[in-house]
Amino acid sequence: METSEANVTEKKSSNFVEEFIEEDIAAGKVAASPTKMVHTRFPPEPNGYLHIGHAKAICMDFGAAAKYGGQCNLRFDDTNPSREDTEYVDAIKEDIHWLGFDWGDRMYYASDYFQQLWDLAEEMIRRGLAYVDEQSAEVIAEQKGTPTQPGVESPFRNRPAEESLDLFRRMNKGEFDEGTMTLRAKIDMASPNMHFRDPIMYRIIKYPHHRTGTKWQAYPMYDFAHGQSDFIEGITHSICTLEFEVHRPLYEYFAKIFAEIKGTTYTPRQIEFNRLNLTHTVMSKRYLRNMVETGVVRGWDDPRMPTLCGLRRRGYTPQSIRDFITTIGYTKYDALNDIRLLENAVRNDLNKNATRIMGVIDPVKLTITNWPAGKVEMCEMDNNPEQEGSGVHQMPFSGELYIEREDFQEVAEKKFFRLTIDKEVRLKSAYIIKCTGVEKDAEGKIVNILCTYDPESKSGMPGADRKVKGTLHWVSAQHAVKAEVRLYNALFMDEEATTESERNPESEIVVENAYIEPFVKEHAEVGNKFQFQRLGYFCIDKDTTADKLVFNRTVSLKESK
RNA sequence: UGCCCCAUGGUGUAAUGGUAGCACACCAGAUUUUGGUUCUGUUUGACUGAGUUCGAGUCUCGGUGGGGCAACCA
Question: How confident is the model at residue A8 (pLDDT cuts 50, 70, 90)?
Fold first, then answer.
């Protein structure tokens, strides 16, 4: 497993979230908070894998804490046992670590606070701020009104606190069926903010919780769990995405009550930023799960998935993802980010760090007719011209090679810089060759390209200092390693993709018989990254076995044909 | 006919009342033993209308356009 450290203290230009935090530091609010430091949290729900949108939140939550010398807690938001599972917990932790962040010893669960939340709810009932409603979901929804029409009050709204308290406790003992009763906050059924129309605080769920088992049968809703958990942990800045903006007044309402009951002035502050949208990509957890379950993709970590494990398998580096996040920034504008920004970020990183090798994906045989029979010669190739001291490796050259089929044209079109009959071309790090003819099969398909080589033109020799039309990559037929190469493209045709969008039938193209230079055999660990010269960046897939190499194309090289 | 939020080149994002900049994309050129990299250059922008001000992308108001809110999800 590859790891990397986020240079979280690096200077980035401030965004509005950080400006808010700086204001709160200046106003002394942070110093007056429970842990006296900027304290954030990353609160995933353990019901799916993290995707690149979560990476944006992670970089914000952990990054802001680090920038101001504070801390970020990891907190699993597990208030709905019927849809959550520990299955996801380890994967989520792994992904956060892989991205380069760490929560120290502060890994929590909202379920850690169920008792405190319960006590708080009971106190609210006693204070006349909450009541048990015995109406069905349908009736409650009807009474809620619409955004343009006020709601009406429940007939149970003004029942005595003692009665609500009794029912509330019995809800939790399993005396009532799911859906028959809820605890509601008594606020304002006519509020223009729908979330103030007596929001549900607790509902009955008779499904064992993955951590607390059957201890509880009434569980808090998001609005009565998230902010309260923030409060309990001493969070100063609860940073989330824009869709929670309308929840903020309720967040503050509950926080104020909690502070009053606790006799403090501290309250956490919720700040919202825009979520990540990418062109040609769908981020919906439900949709992603569906693709996994219906076998459309190879799993949550399919290289086409926007999940962090998918990007990792695809060959993306943590650094490239962090760089990308820095580039797109944090605002309140609902933006659609061009996926080419992500691709650019990984090219930048891999250009500096990926070892150069040669691989031929669509091979055609090339025979050097004047090469001494049986002779094998070694050629020296730079591991990475962009990285000083990265060294060289040897590559065998012989009279029978493979080159890329598209690198040869019998009749060259204009601006074709590659091999064509009677013209010279350079084989990178080897010799200059000249095409003398071709052999075709019965269908007219080229099966062998015949060339002569210039013995004085080997790279490094004076004879190599000659302008030629182009430079090609190649492998020696008898030495090359066969490999499977999986070429990846966008998952969706639409730039602005939705769950209704047509999927790209060529999102994955499997090439069974590619040839890779033998050097790769000594470096065939899963996840290793290479540049196949002139083609793109590739990494070794986990499907690789002792006798079969499998590569994923992370991203192609830029092309300016 | 409600409430909340948003609006800067094609895309994303800076500027904190004082020269509209950066990245990606695009186009052109130079370099190049990767049609990669690197370098240089060109084109392209304040939703709209009023107001405040010596001066407005920035502040105010009105339009317009976009997003969110009516789960016993988070």
Answer: very low
Q: What is the enclosing helix (H) or strand (E) of A397?
A: strand A392-397
How many residues are there in chain A?
A: 561
Say how far apart CA A38 and CA A31 lie, in whole Å.
8
Q: Give the C-alpha separation, A361 to A482, whole Å.
A: 10
Return the exposure string of A501-528: e unless at least 16 CB atoms fall within 10 Å of the residue's CB, then b.
Answer: bebbeebbeeeeebbbbbbbeeebeeeb
pLDDT digits (tens, 9 = 90+) for A486-526: 999 999 999 999 999 999 999 999 999 999 999 999 999 99
pLDDT at residue A1 above 50? no
- Measured to protein CB atoms, the chain B nucleotides within 7 Å are 1-8, 10-16, 23-27, 33-38, 66-74
Does the structure show a pLDDT above 80 at A13?
no
**Nearest-angstrom CA–CA distance, A518 and A479:** 6
| pLDDT computed for residue A555 by the predictor | 98
Q: In degrees rounded to 5, what are phi and psi of residue A425?
A: -150, 155
Residues of A designated as active site: 45, 275, 285
**pLDDT level of residue A14 (50, 70, 90 thresholds):** confident
Per-residue pLDDT of A204-233, as tens digits, reads 999 999 999 999 999 999 999 999 999 999
Checking if the pLDDT of A6 tops 60, the result is no
Tell which residue, A127, A73, A77, has the closest CA to residue A105.
Answer: A73
3-state DSSP assignment of residue A311: helix
Question: Taking the mean position of all CA atoms in its chain, how far away is CA A142?
Answer: 39
Which residues, in sequence order, are CB contacts of A17 under 8 Å at separation 6+?
Answer: A60, A64, A237, A239, A271, A273, A330
Which residue has tokens 């064509």?
A420
| Å from the A147 CA to the B69 C1' | 7
Protein CA at A560 to nucleotide C1' at B29, angstroms? 14
Cα torsion A28, A29, A35, A37: sign? negative
pLDDT for residue A87: 87
DSSP state of A413: P
Question: B3 C1' – A151 CA distance, angstroms?
Answer: 14
CA atoms within 13 A on the CB side of A473: 21
